[in-house]
Specification:
binds zinc ion; 4 strands; two-stranded antiparallel ribbon; 2 domains; single chain; mainly alpha
Amino acid sequence: MKNKDIPQNETAKLLTTITQVEREQINKVLERARRKKCVLCGGEVVGYGHNAQPLRKGLCCDDCNNKVIAIRLMATREGEK
Ligand SMILES: [Zn+2]
């Protein structure tokens, strides 16, 4: 049987056999994988991040979000003229 063929309940059984230390290590790896990069400054995005549009497609950090909001406001005002 190949790895990908392991049924869901088998995976659950495996997860109950891992130790607390192993669980913490797995969580750390997952945490690292969840971390995102800001598409505007390349810095780390903490939490969910913000939509960087219309500047760029993707997520940006808190700092860059201030710029994005300012540009969005400017764009809205331009549209009102
Ligand atoms: Zn940024």
